[in-house]
Design goal:
single chain; Gyrase A, domain 2; four-stranded antiparallel β-sheet
């Protein structure tokens, strides 16, 4: 399998300009989601888990009751790749 290419800062900034819900935090794409309750948050996480498996790219995330915090980065390259952008877009579509 080919190693993904690390994106340049300008590429990331261009993407962020059209995906305002995501921010750049400590070199990762970051977003927080708040749901009505734990079941809503857990259901969302289950959907994201299926998407992540399909892409073969998995988020760093946490859950506290009705809140889900997601950080995306490609650890192998020490930064962001097209995989992170694709997963973020798939998450947005949930």
């Amino acid at each position: 399998m080919t190693r993904p290419r690390r994106l340049e800062r300008g590429e990331v900034e261009s993407w962020l300009a059209t995906h305002a819900a995501w921010t750049l935090r400590d070199g990762s794409l970051h977003r927080e989601f708040v749901f009505d309750d734990f079941v809503g948050a857990f259901g969302f996480m289950a959907k994201v888990a299926v998407l992540a498996e399909r892409l073969g790219h998995h988020p760093d995330w946490s859950n506290g009751y009705a809140r889900v915090v997601i950080d995306l980065t490609t650890h192998d390259v020490g930064g962001l790749t097209a995989l992170d952008l694709a997963l973020a877009e798939a998450i947005d579509a949930c």
